[in-house]
Design brief:
The protein is α/β, with parallel strands linked by helices and 372 residues long. The chain has 3 domains: 44 residues, no CATH class; 117 residues, abc type-2 transporter like domain (abc type-2 transporter like fold, 3-Layer(aba) Sandwich); 196 residues, no CATH class. The chain has 13 helices and 5 strands. A 5-stranded mixed sheet has the order 2-1-3-4-5, sandwiched between helices. Helix 7 runs antiparallel to helix 8 and helix 7 packs parallel to helix 9. The radius of gyration is 26 Å and the shape is elongated.
Length: 372
Amino acid sequence: MQTIKAALVLARKDLVSWFRTPVHILVAFAPIVVIMVLLRLVFGGGETMPVAVVMDSPEDALSRTFVEVVEDIGTTNAPWFEVRTTDSAGADALLENGTLLGIIEVPDITAALESGKDATVHLRVLNLNEDITKNFRQRVQEACLVFGDRMQISSVVAVAPSIRADVHTALPQDLPSVVFMGAGLIALAIAMGGINNATTLVAREFEENTYKDLVLSPGTMSIVLGKWASALVQTCVTTGLIAALAIPICRFSPQGSLWPLLLLLLVGSLSFSGLGTILGLYFRQVIPAAIAGMLIAIVGWWFGGVIWADIWPATIQPLVKILPTTYLIRPFTYAALLDIYTTYWTDIAILLAFGIATGAVSYVLLRRRIAL
């Protein structure tokens, strides 16, 4: 009886400690939830592609029917296409900045068929990725076949529109998915390094009970800057190692100047160091703080650009837009692989704003913590 009673007392003590430490609960289930969500997104249905559909003759009934097919076609889990605009001028701008994967140009189908010719649907594809480009062409071809079947059932002229791909190329050739993955992993190394290096440096002071010695420093700002400078050096080293591995493994090869990438390394590392400092001050233990930082970085990496972020469905775009990782991965991928800088300085400005905000919060929290 005494053994059982002692065991229950110990169990109660451990459970109370477990429930009082939120990170223990988080670590117990969060990784599984993250993996579950990621697998659901990967294997739960076909990838929905953002496109524009532009009609030469919007009043043509058959053209409108074809557009309906494009909007409806897909798997039981997800549509194949998300039509974001039907405006020709707007479509060109969205395709140019990478928001769209392609434009489907629908001719006056009725006029073409009545003249005894095939109606040719033209495609303009932003060939960012060989798999995406291939799937885009195949899916539009399938839409043409479905449209032809509907025309036969409706006893309309039994001629399906042929398809001809008029490809708009941003690159001389399509890039494999693994190349984009390599660029995204290097950006992840910057974000995760900025968070976890700062987290570890700050949390260790409290875990080893040396934080009181910080009071002897010239000021709180010097503490913050010192920690961030150390975190920056560590991040540069780890990012360099990841980049070196990405070259042979992911066939990563920067297309433009290295200076924009180095600037992103500097700004990204310092911006995420503020978040790392906050986590270190909150948990005050290295392992829990590092795990939390790693989870935050991985989730941000996935939704912010492990694949081309703009191709996420519209329901997920609000999340994509609020994640700071989006504004690191997007300019890094654009600059490294495409030599495109349409959003570069805007993204830099957003990263700096995020860094200033988290830096200010971490400064206030650190000053209060040291004063205790």
